[in-house]
Design brief:
Blueprint lengths: L1 E7 L25 H13 L3 E7 H4 L3 H11 L3 E5 L5 H13 L6 E4 L2 H10 L6 E3 L4 H13 L9 E5 L2 E3 L36 E3 L2 E2 L16 E2 L2 H13 L4 E4 L8 H14 L4 E6 L6 H9 L2 E9 L3 H6 L6 H14 L2 E8 L7 H14 L3 E6 L7 H8 L7 H7 L16 H16 L2 H10 L3 H15 L7 H7 L1
Parallel strand pairs: 1-2, 1-3, 3-4, 4-5, 8-11, 11-12, 12-13, 13-14, 14-15
Antiparallel strand pairs: 5-6, 6-7, 9-10
Amino acid sequence: MFHIVLINPPRRHVVELDLPGFVDLGEISSFPPIGLMYLAQALRQESPLNHVTILDCVADGLDAEQTAQKVKELAPDLVGITSFTFTFYDVLETAKCLKAAGVRAPLAIGGPHMYLFGPETMSHQIFDIGVVGDGEEVFAQACKALREGTPIPDLPGLLHRVDGKLTGSGVAQLQGLDDVQIPAIDLIDPTKYYSTLGKSMAVGTICSSRGCPFRCTFCQVPHTPYRTRAVENVVDEMERYVAMGILDFFFFDDLFNITKQRVVDFSKEILRRGLKVSWMFRGRVDQIDEEMMRMAVKAGCHTVSVGVEDATDKGLKAIRKNITIAQAKQAVRDIRKSGARSSTNWILGFPHHSTQADMDQLLRTAIAVDADYAQFSILQCMPGSELYDQAVQEGGLDPDAWRNYVLSPVPLFSPPIWERHFSKEQLCAHYSHMYKRYYMRPRVFIRELLATASFAELFRKVKTFCRFFLPWGHKGHNDKRAKA
């Protein structure tokens, strides 16, 4: 038996804005490590000799040292750890604790972070293998080589060391998603995960597509082809969750409704199988209409989250969103008519946000669109996005800030913000003001009370309210600095 432990590392030193009132949305929702679940199933499919354990340190509340002790007790033959750039300090600390605890198994690292900083990450000699891109096939092949004592193959997206020298390049990319096995749901406890917008205490997270065909200027998502799973394949996965008692679902896709017809076909398949489930998805406003939404609601859809981002058609054109404010308003109206709930996303701090009037317009537009929920965020330009390149060219961002952080991570790193027209403090003041103005409206309170169907849902909403609007509800960097 060849034992592989896959780690979702602790998040004790997450990179976030060190400003009063800033709330990490991760504090009010909890989602399973779906990437590790896909990897686990791919490993089990590669060979019955592979025994896989998923260790979710976030859900279990483990720190780096506790994680290392648990891994040591499991005595694995291979360890994999997933990383986002904003969690890399904790990732590296966990790796160091593993070695200090005497874990001698090869250590592999993957996750979205590797798209941006693969070579920089592998400069830390503690990592033996790196995976860039879709890891299911290439990581399974690396595992097979280690298990059989043969050289690790040279495959796109697979970084490894040969005689101490790093080799490998490219990006691993799956072509057909229907060939990917349903993720290893049995290796997690689904009851540990929830969404603020969910209908029950436990939510199943599903990814029915990968990639995005659009090229918004603020987005650093790697430019990989958009690929979808067949609706039958997706509903098969839902049935696995249903068998475990999970009836509420969140589709984690960057873009679920690539077309209206895809949502209709998916809804019909749920109805055909007679599944009594509820679900929500993220998508675009230009692929929503009342007919599609009525079919989706009939099949259990209760919430749709859409990215609008900016306040005017001119601004939307500048960021290449390829939608209009009129489309956003119509989409929210169609969602509401169907009986579902809507959530919109907005970004403040774009380079064309140059005056107080621009900020006021953003808030007015968000209120005019009038979704049930609105999420505001401050623009954070990450390497890989067009706006990052523009900010660097204009001297608004240090081109080496993120790279230096990855090469030498520190626990209290504050992400660089493009202060083209507003300072960090001013942006955060606008951020806090927008949340308060949006949600402190009587119609919002009334809508929320009327839409609350259970005590569990009420509890989550009250918790979210406290996080955003009560001083003691904030758990940002300031608290971490006090404890450091």
